[in-house]
């Protein structure tokens, strides 16, 4: 399953990455699974995504909780709590 | 309750400033059923900023932003009898005193316009993908989200408008 | 809570229209502590008017009007942390779509600005000495007061603002 | 005791009068007393002020209830419920 990953704001800077195409490994079917997979990269990825820090996930441009299911071609964005307005 | 036309919803994300008088005219355009227009303008203020902050920079998630704002406006138009909603949110570099956001709500009823505008702002603060970064002479830092903004959005789950149905504004 | 300057209060009763952009600039003038400006514009709407109404005429009680509006604005500035309040109310002959009243409230906090503006409008509707007369081809008739406006003003005796102290608007 | 009386809107038209100077008779000391005195003029005065119709009174440009005391030189305004905004 291939997905398009986007990072914003502080997370974009921490990861040094605004966007990546990712082929999700067999067995990763939810946002939670994807986050665990990314955290396994270590360093900033582990700190930000598995270190008790608060962040949000949008799937196909909708905020979702981590139990949401991924699908082929999904756009998944990970970002800090928003501070607009 | 009056028969309502579909609310006219406009959402814009832009670097440029906005012209409130123009937005008011657009909201009121040829609609004599509107009795109340409530506008909210958010400004960059310096009270909460450290003394060394010289500018604010706003990043957003193009595509999702417009979708999220449009959905918040639609949700408001379901909850209250609205004629028009216009949202303009700026991105890029801003300075103290600069306007960041405009929310404009037109309705027959003043309480509907007030409540819907406050509702939109509360949801915008928690659900629209914007992020603020403060620029200082030592470099930039990201602004943290406020818990109070989340509790402000939460309260709308409980709020029931008791007034808008019978407090027209002529 | 922030140390507040005295709220700047301006009240004007006039036949002429008003310039919202000008009023916004005056409200924001050199005050970088303002994070939120909420404006209310009331328009003559034709939904409630009979089909034969061609104009509305507003009479007022010169002297008492300015005093009553000033007092309502001061009361709002006691209840909420406001930086500026501007009220412009028109009198004389108006037509559907014309603006009648502008209430503009500036604060550091968005909920304070929303609530104070709604409070001022509710009290203005019940305590400021204005009277509307509808003009029709058959002659004029006076508009009756609405009970709902009185209950809207009453509710402020009970309302406690829980939010404004900690929901700043940057 | 001399007072200045003002009438507005529908009442001004009904009474055919916008303003009058009045020497209040001995014994009339409150707004209620003044209203009874005016209603005794009959016709529109009785209908509007003693006929169960709703109106408001301002004393020296402040809304008051009918128990308020008059004073020499008072400005008393009688008018229908307001309909501004």
Explain how this protein is built.
The complex is a heterotetramer, with two copies of chain A (85 residues) and two copies of chain B (170 residues). Chain A is of the alpha+beta class and 85 residues long. Chain A has one domain: Roll (Ubiquitin-like (UB roll)). Chain A is built from three helices and five strands; from the N terminus they run E-H-E-H-H-E-E-E. A five-stranded mixed sheet of chain A has the order 2-1-5-3-4. In chain A, strand 3 and strand 4 form a beta hairpin. Chain A is globular. Chain B has 170 residues and is of the alpha+beta class. In chain B, helix 2 (64-79) runs antiparallel to helix 3 and helix 3 crosses helix 4 (147-154). Chain B has a four-stranded mixed sheet with strand order 1-4-6-2, sandwiched between helices. A four-stranded antiparallel sheet of chain B has the order 5-3-7-8, with no helix packed on it. The interface between B and C is large, with 48 and 48 residues.
Q: Notable features of this structure?
A:
heterotetramer, A: Ubiquitin-like (UB roll), 5-stranded mixed sheet, 5 strands, B: 170 residues, alpha+beta, 4-stranded mixed sheet, 4-stranded antiparallel sheet, 8 strands, disordered C terminus
Gist of the model:
The complex is a heterotetramer, with 2 copies of chain A (85 residues) and 2 copies of chain B (170 residues). Chain A is α+β, with helices and mostly antiparallel strands and 85 residues long.
CATH level-3 fold name of chain A: Ubiquitin-like (UB roll)
Which CATH architecture of chain A is right? Roll
Gross morphology of chain A is globular
**Strand arrangement, largest sheet of chain A?**
2-1-5-3-4
Helical coverage of chain B, percent range = 25-40%
Strand-and-helix sequence of chain B, N→C? EHEEHEEEHEEH
Describe the sheet with the most strands of chain A.
5 strands, mixed
* Total beta-strand segments of chain A: 5
Total number of beta strands of chain B: 8
Please report the distance between the alpha carbons of the first and last residues of chain A.
36 Å
Taking strands numbered 1, 2, ... along the chain, how are they ordered across the largest sheet of chain B?
A: 1-4-6-2
